[in-house]
């Protein structure tokens, strides 16, 4: 059986979605073992800090790892520079550990559709 480890933010976790309907849960219906390590509000810095948990989940079998994050980094800093650097560091570490790595790109959020309560935290137009 293949194992897919999903490391990411709220899009991976399944914010505002029934846990039975999150995309990582739906992937399990194909027979793939899925470990959902998504955390709402996480940044790529947080994901990088949690990378040892991914390597622990990998165990002795080759794991497939899907990294999906960066939106929160951009929202909070207005730049994608940190997100790019952190994602590159994660990819390199996972590859050196023998993982098959995939990077998912979240859909962009425009300023008009961003939650109003987040306006004090991020300049969505700038991001």
Could you describe the 3D structure shown?
- The structure is a single chain.
- It is globular and about 45 Å long.
- The protein is built from six helices and four strands.
- The chain has a four-stranded parallel sheet with strand order 2-1-3-4.
- The protein has helices spanning 10-13, 23-28, 44-49, 51-58, 71-77, 81-96, and strands spanning 3-8, 33-38, 64-68, 100-103.
- 37% of the residues lie in helices and 17% in strands.
- The chain has 127 residues and is an alpha/beta fold.
- The model has no long low-confidence stretch (mean pLDDT 87).
- The N and C termini lie far apart (40 Å).
- The longest helix has 16 residues, at 81-96.
Question: Layout of SSEs?
Answer:
Blueprint: E1 3-8, H1 10-13, H2 23-28, E2 33-38, H3 44-49, H4 51-58, E3 64-68, H5 71-77, H6 81-96, E4 100-103
Parallel strand pairs: 1-2, 1-3, 3-4
Summarize this entry quickly.
The protein has 127 residues and is α/β, with parallel strands linked by helices. Helix content is 37%, strand content 17%.
Using only CA atoms, what is the Rg?
Answer: 15 Å
Q: Specify the overall morphology.
A: globular
Order of helices and strands: EHHEHHEHHE
Low-confidence stretches: none
Task: Please describe the biggest sheet, giving its number of strands, its sense, and whether it closes into a barrel.
Answer: 4 strands, parallel
Widest sheet: strand order?
A: 2-1-3-4
By helix and strand content, what is the structural category? alpha/beta
Classify the beta-strand content into a percent band: 15-25%
Helix content: 25-40%
**Count of DSSP H/I helices:** 6
In round numbers, the mean pLDDT is 87
The tally of beta strands, per DSSP, is 4
Distance between the termini: 40 Å
